[in-house]
From TrEMBL:
Pathway(s) it belongs to: Organic acid metabolism; glycolate biosynthesis; glycolate from 2-phosphoglycolate: step 1/1
Organism: Roseateles agri
Family designation: Belongs to the HAD-like hydrolase superfamily. CbbY/CbbZ/Gph/YieH family.
Domain of life of the native organism: Bacteria
GO molecular function: phosphoglycolate phosphatase activity
NCBIfam families: HAD-SF-IA-v1, PGP_bact
Role according to the record: Specifically catalyzes the dephosphorylation of 2-phosphoglycolate. Is involved in the dissimilation of the intracellular 2-phosphoglycolate formed during the DNA repair of 3'-phosphoglycolate ends, a major class of DNA lesions induced by oxidative stress.
Name of the molecule in the record: Phosphoglycolate phosphatase
InterPro entries for this protein: HAD-like_hydrolase_sf (IPR050155), HAD-like_sf (IPR036412), HAD-SF_hydro_IA (IPR006439), HAD_2 (IPR041492), HAD_sf (IPR023214), PGP-like_dom2 (IPR023198), PGPase_prok (IPR037512)
């Protein structure tokens, strides 16, 4: 086995999504959104709505939530400021690392290849959450939805992350939970692995083409290394 091989089929680096892939953050999103809605004397939202709506960044989530409860879109700026304030306090309090994630990250990190976390979550919240859940140690780089001009499903964040890791997209595996991750990865030329337990906009993830669909991150098949 030659670990330094440049065979593009072999993973030379990993990019891992955060919400729905490593951490079950739905509880945080629901708690924060409902505090914002209560502040604004608006009706609260349920877990199902949030599960269908997360994954495209905070702006999209806040705008969609206001529309869902029938609020005026002009409330956005106020809601965004309140969302930031509540999220800063509540980040990680209602969320759990998914089963198999620590074991999976240990397997990946044992390969000694560069690893990045790439999420649509604002970078400051992502860094804070990774630190609180003791996952920061696995990543050489962490990028959030406000680090680049465009978010996933645009390929730009993937291309920029590959550049930062110093690896070719074709040799850099993206591990995510949604069609957003898959679309961004495919457009960037990165192979994609999808987990089934996350949030895929209310759609079955098995319908989204990927190298592998996993029930747990530690079930990832790295046999391309053999
Ligand atoms: O939309 C978000 O805030 C985060 O989503 P992601 O971590 O799955 O990219
Ligand atoms: Mg996700």
């Amino acid at each position: 086995m030659n670990l330094t091989s440049q065979n593009p089929d072999q993973p030379q680096a990993f990019i891992v999504d955060l919400d729905g892939t490593m951490v079950d953050t739905l509880g945080d999103f629901v708690a924060v959104l409902n505090r914002v809605l209560q502040d604004l004397a608006l009706p609260v939202v349920g877990r199902d709505f949030v599960e269908r709506t997360v994954g495209q960044g905070s702006e999209h989530l806040i705008r969609s939530t206001l529309a869902h409860v029938g609020a005026e879109p002009q409330l956005y700026e106020d809601a965004w400021a309140r969302y930031q304030a509540h999220y800063t306090v509540l980040n990680g309090q209602h969320s759990e690392v998914f089963p198999g994630v620590v074991e999976g990250l240990e397997r990946l990190s044992a390969l000694g290849r560069p690893m990045a976390c790439l999420t649509n979550k604002p970078a400051a919240f992502a860094r804070d959450l990774l630190a609180k859940k003791d996952l920061a140690k696995y990543f050489d780089k962490v990028f959030g939805g406000d680090d680049f001009a465009r978010k996933k499903p645009d390929p730009l964040p993937l291309l920029k992350t590959c550049e930062a890791l110093g690896t070719a997209p074709a040799a850099t595996w993206m591990i995510g939970d949604s069609s957003n991750d898959a679309r961004a990865a495919t457009a960037a030329g990165c192979p994609v692995v999808l987990v089934r337990y996350g949030y895929n906009h209310g759609e079955p993830i098995d319908a989204v083409p990927a190298l592998q669909h996993l029930d747990r991150l530690d079930a990832i098949d790295l046999s391309a290394w053999a």
